[in-house]
């Protein structure tokens, strides 16, 4: 908080406290010429009279004590702008102390799983229950409670991995995050053939997912024409055969399980505007051991056979 805002807060607090004290003092006094409490002249039904009696002295004194308490409270705790308070207490320090205490409890709970290989953790029912809980609290917002993903968010239950599905690769993704960028190519293709070139490239990309690419290209003129644009612009990341590059996070374009809808319009949008996918890093949020547990759970979703097998028979 800047000094100006701090002064503003202090002035407001002082004015409010002073205003309360003045109002209490002013309204508690009786002045010469004031009517007696019984002489308000407010009478109803002949015998119901409104009085104007002051509050009892003990009640007024309680209000004064409340004002005195508020002054002491604001002096002891940081209530006057940037003034730290005589006690030195801060909500941030209390939060940090509580967080440290909770972190120590978590470390004790998860210590038994520290450093264990993901394949071993995937065979431990209790570890998987913890991993499932961590996933529900941390990952389900993007990947869904069933981990089947959504447009732009990968399905974690299949065997399609843009960055690799090996246990340690998944752990790297959880710990340090990933950033996948598909650059926009609309302007480039505009200079090579305009909107037709974009559509032809999209048609070729869609054809890569067919069971027989050669037959598809023979029967689809647009897809066949799009191959030259793909070879000129896309192979650097996705490879000559379109199977992608897990080191770059470039997806395999030959699989049916796509990150975005497998429609011509969706593919055109990707080519024209590009895509930017970010998986945030969780190293600071979860720490090494909890990241290992959730990574083991994610790995088990697409490797249930190996996760269920006894050690040494994977």
Tell me about this structure.
One of its GO terms (cellular component) is plasma membrane. The chain crosses the membrane at residues 6-25, 58-77. One of its GO terms (molecular function) is metal ion binding. C-type cytochrome. Part of the cbb3-type cytochrome c oxidase complex. Heme c 1 binds at residues 139, 142-143, 279. There is one protein chain. With 314 residues, the protein is mostly helical. It has 3 domains: 3-89, no CATH class; 104-177 and 280-308, Cytochrome c-like domain (Cytochrome Bc1 Complex, Chain D, domain 2); 181-279, Orthogonal Bundle (Cytochrome Bc1 Complex, Chain D, domain 2). The chain has 15 helices and 4 strands. The protein has helices at residues 3-28, 57-76, 91-110, 118-121, 125-138, 140-143, 167-176, 186-190, 194-207, 213-219, 221-233, 235-238, 264-273, 283-301, 304-308, and strands at residues 43-44, 48-49, 178-182, 275-279. The strands form 2 sheets. The protein has a two-stranded antiparallel sheet. The protein has a two-stranded antiparallel ribbon with strand order 3-4. A hairpin with a 3-residue loop joins strand 1 (43-44) and strand 2 (48-49). Helix 5 (125-138) crosses helix 14, helix 7 packs antiparallel against helix 14 (283-301) and helix 10 (213-219) crosses helix 11. The relative contact order is 0.12. Mean pLDDT is 90; it is low at 310-314.
């Amino acid at each position: 908080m800047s000094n100006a805002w701090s002064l503003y807060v202090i002035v407001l607090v002082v004015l409010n406290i002073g205003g309360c004290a003045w109002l209490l003092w002013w309204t508690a006094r009786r002045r010469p010429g004031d009517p007696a409490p019984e002489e308000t002249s407010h009478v109803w039904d002949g015998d119901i009279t409104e009085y104007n009696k002051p509050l009892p002295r003990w009640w007024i004194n309680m209000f004064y004590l409340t004002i005195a308490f508020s002054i002491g409270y604001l002096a002891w705790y940081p209530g006057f702008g940037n003034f730290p308070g005589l006690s030195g207490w801060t909500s941030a320090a209390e939060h940090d102390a509580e967080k440290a205490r909770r972190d120590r409890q978590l470390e004790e709970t998860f210590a038994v799983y520290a450093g264990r290989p993901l394949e071993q953790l995937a065979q431990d029912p209790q570890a998987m229950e913890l991993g499932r809980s961590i996933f529900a609290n941390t990952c389900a917002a993007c990947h869904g409670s069933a981990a089947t993903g959504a447009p732009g968010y990968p399905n974690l239950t299949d065997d399609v991995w843009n960055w690799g599905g090996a246990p340690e690769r998944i752990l790297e993704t959880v710990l340090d995050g990933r950033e996948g960028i598909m650059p926009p190519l609309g302007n480039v293709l505009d200079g090579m053939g305009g909107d037709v070139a974009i559509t032809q490239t999209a048609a070729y990309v869609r054809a890569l997912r067919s069971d027989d690419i050669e037959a598809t290209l023979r029967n689809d003129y647009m897809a066949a024409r799009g191959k030259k644009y793909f070879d000129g612009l896309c192979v650097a990341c996705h490879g000559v055969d379109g199977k992608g590059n897990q080191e770059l996070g470039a997806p395999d374009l030959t699989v049916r399980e796509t990150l975005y809808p497998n429609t011509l319009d969706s593919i055109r949008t990707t080519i024209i505007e590009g895509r930017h996918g970010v998986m945030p890093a969780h190293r600071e949020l979860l720490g090494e051991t909890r990241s290992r547990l959730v990574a083991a759970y994610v790995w088990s979703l697409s490797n249930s056979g190996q996760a269920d097998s006894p050690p040494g028979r994977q």
